[in-house]
Specification:
The chain has two domains: 1-50; 52-100. Helix 1 packs across helix 2. By secondary structure, it is an all-alpha fold. It has helices at 3-24, 29-49, 55-60, 62-86, 88-91. The termini are far apart. It has five helices and no strands. 78% of the residues lie in helices and 0% in strands. Pfam families: DUF3144. It comes from Methylophaga frappieri (strain ATCC BAA-2434 / DSM 25690 / JAM7). This is DUF3144 domain-containing protein.
């Protein structure tokens, strides 16, 4: 793994650790997920806007920008869902004897 790849995953892990710490404070996972998703959307809107000179310029590329972010999120979500499907018992340890 290159240093650039390591830095990428280190940043991602730092965000996940922050989310996990909020759950440790008693916030439900769904609430943390909703806040996490909102913050990512807000950051990506800022990131997108920062590259333009005006709101009108940003408005011209609004649709294609949203489409690009949605497609990339879907690709990453599908990749991670497949990983969790493959490694479910490793990632999600549960007491199997308590299930119906």
């Amino acid at each position: 793994m290159s240093e650039q790849d390591k830095a990428f995953f280190d940043r991602a892990d730092a965000f996940i650790q922050l989310a996990n710490s909020q759950m440790a404070e008693g916030t439900e996972a769904g609430q943390v997920s909703a806040s996490f998703m909102y913050s990512l959307a807000r950051y990506n809107a800022w990131f997108s806007a920062a590259g333009w000179q005006s709101g009108q310029d940003l408005a011209k590329v609004r649709g294609e920008t949203i489409e690009m972010f949605v497609k990339e999120f879907q690709r990453l979500l599908e990749m991670n869902m497949d990983d969790y499907i493959t490694n479910f018992d490793k990632y999600i340890p549960v007491a199997r004897n308590n299930q119906p």
